[in-house]
Specification:
Length: about 300
Amino acid sequence: MAHIAFIGLGNMGGPMAANLVKAGHKVTAFDLVAALRDQAKADGAAIAESSVAAVKGAEIIVTMLPAGKHVLSVWNEVIPAMSRGALIIDCSTIDVESAKQAHALAARHGMLSVDAPVSGGTGGAKGATLTFMCGGEAKAFAAAKPVLENMGKKIVHCGGVGAGQAAKICNNMILAVSMIAVCEGFALAEKLGLSHQALFDVASTSSGQCWAMTSYCPVPGPVPTSPANNGYRPGFAAALMVKDLTLAQDAANAAGAATPLGKHAQEIYRAFDAAGHGGVDFSGIMQHVRSLAGK
Ligand code: NAD
């Protein structure tokens, strides 16, 4: 079992760190928020007074932070304090450029590093069923995989540095576009007098089939576990979707890729967020799509 430092104990990081404890690792944890440190302690982690103190003696360091600037700031602080030969893994969703800078920082100090953003949300974090999309050298990935397996069920090596972040934003751009498309299908069905169940029964087994339809259906009824049945409580909040779509657009602009539907999806989710619905599950965009009728 390894000595693991975990930095960033929020909605995702808290339960992920708890799963590492459950798997038998020695976990030393830190977050800026005292209440989250207390929760990690209750989950069985040792608590450090700072990020730098947390990484002392650890073989593996995991960060789960809001954005690229937080990751670069924490990695700048902790990398000089890491033990020789230690591995640092960032599981946050951040821009590809910051991810590459973070890897370069680790490489300058002779440390192995992996970008490993996740899919699966808070449910996946609690249930240790996350998918990890990893970028980095083969040697770094091989060292990270057994630890990630304690927090997830699918661990994919996507390529070199930043490839995990690239996969994450491409996937979420597809998800946002397909969710809006499914919502438009249901909104049109409503106007045409077609029931939700009838459209679901056809589209879920026909060429309109996709995850947004079959696993996360944005209208109540057909998929009882979807947030639509629970007042659109997240799940995956619309504000986080805005974040990921913005990362995708920034990457598309920097790389010279044309993503017109991704751009439009960003505009639609931004409008939903600006109207005060950032905390609603992203499938709640169904309400926004309906509200566009006649405009
Ligand atoms: P969160 O805001 O709940 O947690 C982030 C934590 O980082 C906070 O507790 C904050 O106090 C801590 N933090 C910030 N700066 C710090 C510092 N310098 N030192 C120590 N701690 C610091 O966010 P979250 O929902 O847990 O998401 C974390 C990351 O995972 C984000 O990048 C997010 O985009 C991504 N993600 C979230 C979800 C989800 O459903 N919530 C799903 C997939 C990916």
